[in-house]
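Form 7-S
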Amino acid sequence: MDKKIPVTPFEIIRRMKDVPKILEWSRKKHLTVSGPDFWGIHHVYIDNSLKHVIFCLKADLTTHVFIGIPTGAKEQRKYDKDVNLLFSEQLNDDSLGWKIYKDIVLYKGKMLPSKKILEEPYWGEIVGVEAFNDYINDQWIVSKIKELYNK
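Output:
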C-alpha cells in the first residue's frame, strides 16, 4: 500500500530553489533511506564528483545497484549472493529518477510499480547521514556490497 507522501506538491516546488545548496550538501555523503516499501532500507552513496549509487539488498541475498547522476540512474546492475554480476544494462532517462532532499528522497520512473496517482512519486525517509570519502568505481561497488551484507 502506498504511504502518503509527506510533502505537498507546493512544498516540492518551494524546495526547488534549494536544489543547488542540497546538491552541494549531498556531496561526499552516505544516506541510509527507509522506503519505499518495495525497497525497504537502502543505501545511497554520493562521491565528490556527484556520482550516485543506490544499493538495494534483497532477502535472497541478491543486490540491485543503480548507478547515476544527481537526477537519476544511468545503469542498473544485479549481483548474486556471491557478488557475481548477473546483468548490467544502460537505462533511459525516464527509467528511474530521484530528487534528494535533506529529509526525504523522491523516486519516479517507468521501472517502479505504477501508482493510483500516476504523477505522485514514491519516497523514502533519510534515516541516516554519514560522511563518504571514497570514489565510486566497479571495484568499490563489489567491496561495498560485501561490507553491507556483513553489517
